[in-house]
Design brief:
By secondary structure, this protein is α+β, with helices and mostly antiparallel strands. Helix content is 74%, strand content 8%. It contains ten helices and four strands; from the N terminus they run H-H-H-E-H-E-H-E-H-E-H-H-H-H. The chain has a four-stranded antiparallel β-sheet. The longest helix has 43 residues, at 167-209.
Length: 302
């Protein structure tokens, strides 16, 4: 019986024309409620937004710095090459083709022993003697963290006499990338926790101040979302306002990092500032609205 009534209700609802003007009036009313809630909070708004701006500035600065450090690490990694010394009588072109088949190998160049010998004689005063140097391959790897894997694969080739690369530098670059990524994740977690805590406490005060008004609305049968929406929007407003203020100090950080990139002649990450700002605004609004939503669920049974 109940199922049949529900089906009839759905069918009837489908044929009822939507009153868009009414929905716009409701949206306008909810926006007005949000504005009144923010106004009621008073001077506390300034404290919350300033605190949010400080948290977001720290996050944005760390995130932007992490992008630059990764860029420097990548640039250093691109310079890293594995030097492969071939056995006498080995065909360098055949070995080159074999090495290029390995995964993570970006490029392979051949340095003939004659070229190496001429360069060495130019740098050092050597007596006339037979060229003792082998043919050499310079293997460039796509990422610093993959250099060890490529090294082991190439070393297994029978034509290879010896190999070398800046192992310590490669390990330091890999460790630096890992540390930067860990710190960035840690900062995001801390930012999220602080933001949600601040918003939670603020919305709790708003709920307490509007307790009687909310109770009356519930008794009148007002929709739960009509009660929730202004509070969620208030949290999102704090996040947006904090991010807007945080853009100013973030520009100073951006200019400073650009100067560092120019000094070391390392290209700055593409669209770095735009990416950081977009992520900062998105996270600020989501954390702000999320903090409000969690508080509503905890302190307001609607």
């Amino acid at each position: 019986m109940n199922d049949s009534k529900l089906k009839i209700k759905k069918k009837v609802k489908k044929h009822i024309p939507k009153d868009w003007l009414c929905e716009l009036r409701i949206l306008y009313r909810l926006s007005v409620e949000t504005f009144h809630d923010i106004k009621r909070t008073g001077i506390v708004n300034l404290v919350i937004i300033t605190t949010m701006a400080a948290i977001l500035t720290i996050f944005g600065s760390f995130f932007r710095s992490a992008m630059s450090i990764s860029s420097f690490a990548k640039e250093l990694g691109n310079v890293l090459e594995i030097s492969v010394y071939l056995k006498q009588g080995s065909d360098a072109n055949v070995v080159k083709k074999r090495v290029k088949e390995f995964s993570h190998v970006e490029s392979v160049s051949i340095v003939p022993k004659e070229t190496s010998w001429v360069n060495l004689k130019r740098e050092m005063d050597l007596p006339d003697m037979e060229n003792p140097l082998p043919d050499t391959l310079h293997v460039k790897v796509d990422k610093p963290e993959n250099i060890e894997e490529v090294f082991k694969n190439v070393k297994q080739l029978k034509s290879v006499e010896d190999m070398s690369y800046a192992q310590d530098l490669a390990k330091k670059i890999e460790a630096l990338n890992r540390i930067v990524n860990t710190i960035t994740v840690f900062v995001v977690i801390i930012m999220g926790m602080l933001t949600i805590t601040i918003i939670n406490n603020t919305i709790q005060l708003v709920i307490q101040s509007r307790k009687d008004e909310i109770e009356i609305m519930r008794l009148m049968g007002v929709s739960n979302w009509y009660i929730r929406f202004p509070l969620i929007m208030q949290g999102a407003f704090y996040g947006f306002s904090g991010a807007l203020i945080a853009v100013l100090p973030l520009n100073v950080v951006q200019n400073g990092l650009n100067n560092v990139h120019q000094f070391f002649m390392v290209p700055s990450p593409l669209y770095a500032q735009s990416i950081v700002i977009a992520i900062m605004f998105t996270m600020a609004i989501l954390f702000g609205a999320g903090g409000s939503f969690l508080c509503i669920k905890k302190h307001l049974q609607v």
